[in-house]
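As promised in the previous annual report, we have extended the structural survey to additional targets. Below is the entry for Adenine DNA glycosylase.
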Amino acid sequence: MIFHNFLIKWYLENKRDLPWRNTTNPYHIWLSEIMLQQTRVAQGMPYFLAFTAAFPTVFDLANADEEKVLKLWQGLGYYSRARNLHKTAQYIAYELSGVFPDNYKDLLQLKGVGEYTAAAIASFSYNEAVPVVDGNVFRVLSRYFDVETDIALASAKKEFAALAFELMPKDKPAIFNQAIMEFGALQCVPKSPDCGNCVFNDSCAALQKKKVDQLPVKSKKLKVRNRYFNYLMLSDAEENTLIQKRTAKGIWHNLYEFPLIETMQEEDFEFVSNAVQQESFFTNPIISMRACNEKSIVHKLSHQHLHIKFWKLNVKGVVENGITKEELRQYPFPIVIHNFIEAN
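The corresponding structure token record, generated without further manual editing, is:
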């Protein structure tokens, strides 16, 4: 049995019709690959369509205002991807005259483009024989060949890339890469795969050894940090409010938020009320203050769990630098704040 023949045959019969598969345009392939990092296809698809409509070419994206890019990205998370996307578009447009590098080695030099994304663009756009290695590929190969290497190790990617390269038909790298990723996404799924209806069910080592649910091996993640955010949603005599830009490095860089009081643990009304009096967000006297959500909203990021409370403050007079409710909706916010604004 030749592995790639079975795999490609399965792919041609079962593949999803995705817009970035109907093109070799490196701009569209780059966009899709950046968006699909840490993101499911179903979630990423509307964003891809919105971006290609708003920015048909890399020049359009390069010339766009960063806030517009972040606003369109709102809800996809990992916002550094969007900032890097914008910077790389500017580099390609202004320094490379809009022409993407045409090989894996040069693609790796682009900001925000790692080994996986460079391999995807190189193979899909330029048919370069370089393997892609993502979570799907780790899973398919570790199960089929019973590879117990811990995929959390830095050395694992090189080992699996070498194995994938060995299996790849060098005249069909694009379709092989698409096929193995799609097979992992649709057939060889993380939990309870349908091994009974698998084209490899008579040759998969993990199935024969009853190890499917044990592979791939991945060591435990780092401990998650808990943070406690108290957002102050101000409303003055004209129903204007205040927001601020997160300029510090870290989560949500360059997105907007309400004035924030971060605490060491979840705090009650009295604690937050006293803290508000001590902060200098505004000088207007407070008329009233109330909790918009008694129970914290837990917003889970890969390395942090944010416990978020929103507090509504009515103040006397008109605040300096206030914005209207209509203006508020034009700014890019983290999705948890965007959802709160839309609900209130």
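The first helix runs from residue 3 to 14. Strands lie at 225-235, 244-245, 256-257, 260-263, 286-291, 297-300, 304-315. These points will be discussed at the next consortium meeting with the crystallography subgroup.
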